[in-house]
Amino acid sequence: MAGFWVIGNWKMNGRLQTGKELASQLLAVAAQCADRVRVAVAPAALHLHAVGSVLDNSAIQLAAQMASAHEDGAYTGQCSAAMLADLGVRMVLVGHSECRTELAQDDAVLRAQMQRIHEQGMTVVLCLGESLASYEAGQTLAVIERQMTVLHDWVDWSRLMIAYEPVWSIGTGKVASPEHIAAVHDHIHQRLRELGDAEAAVVVLYGGSVKPALMPQLLALSGVNGVLVGGASLDAEQFGQICMVVAEQALTD
Ligand code: PGA
């Protein structure tokens, strides 16, 4: 399990004080398992500075939920990758389904965001996943293939992670079967192999209603290198349990 990632996506939840409290509770979690599991959290952009101060010098990395596709300039309401890097952000989500849908982000926007993040030396966490309609139509792998075309001219594979998150599973409590998750992860690893010598370096996460009880099943799948956790990451106890399951598995490996 060495190198298994647990990343919390806090989305647009909480207030400044609750974010700082959650971060300090996570310091205790990290102290128990940081040698066996790699942990990051993505607070709302406005809370990055305060949460980053709490996590400073800890093993928990600071992540951001989104970066602008633009470098600088007249883009009201946006945050540039450089601004995020200034705050100590190490990785940035790109193409989360909530951004793809709510903010109508297309491939051109995602590619530009990836470029900006890369220029600032941060890691891209590219989120992929099929809608319920595509899942039911048996189109999952075709959707994943299409979404992965944004990687066609990507070169820095060591600063890329992929998160497979079936859209129908995000925040719904519905969980994909281990067979489905394994098949999609195998396919992603296969595509990465075809894109170059990418596969060795790229961490491929699973996300969608991840809870502590799901972890043993996920840890049994060889293609799953980590988890992206939404709702359960807002609860220090549940997030801590997820990290501890990984850490305990690492001891038995
Ligand atoms: P969830 O969210 O764990 O609440 O389903 C996952 C995500 O959106 O990254």
Model description:
- With 253 residues, this protein is an alpha/beta fold.
- It has an eight-stranded parallel β-barrel with strand order 1-2-3-4-5-6-7-8, surrounded by four helices.
- Helix 9 links the parallel strand 7 and strand 8.
- The structure holds 2-phosphoglycolic acid.
What is the level 1 CATH name? Alpha Beta
The CATH topology is TIM Barrel
Q: What number of domains?
A: 1
What is the CATH architecture term?
Alpha-Beta Barrel
Mean pLDDT: 95
Q: Helical element count?
A: 10
Fraction in helix = 40-55%
- Net shape: globular
Order of helices and strands: EHEHEHEHHEHHEHEHEH
Show unreliable segments: none
What integer value in Å does the Rg equal?
Answer: 17 Å
* Fraction in beta strands: 15-25%
Specify the CATH homologous superfamily. Answer: Aldolase class I
Bound molecules: 2-phosphoglycolic acid
Sum this structure up briefly:
By secondary structure, the chain is α/β, with parallel strands linked by helices.
Strand-helix topology:
Blueprint: E1 5-9, H1 16-33, E2 38-42, H2 48-55, E3 61-64, H3 81-86, E4 91-94, H4 97-102, H5 107-119, E5 123-128, H6 132-136, H7 140-147, E6 160-164, H8 178-195, E7 203-207, H9 215-219, E8 226-229, H10 236-252
Helix pairs in contact: 1-2, 1-10, 7-8
The site of 2-phosphoglycolic acid has 13 residues, from strand 8.
Characteristics:
binds 2-phosphoglycolic acid, TIM Barrel, globular, 253 residues, alpha/beta, 41% helix, eight-stranded parallel barrel, 10 helices, 8 strands
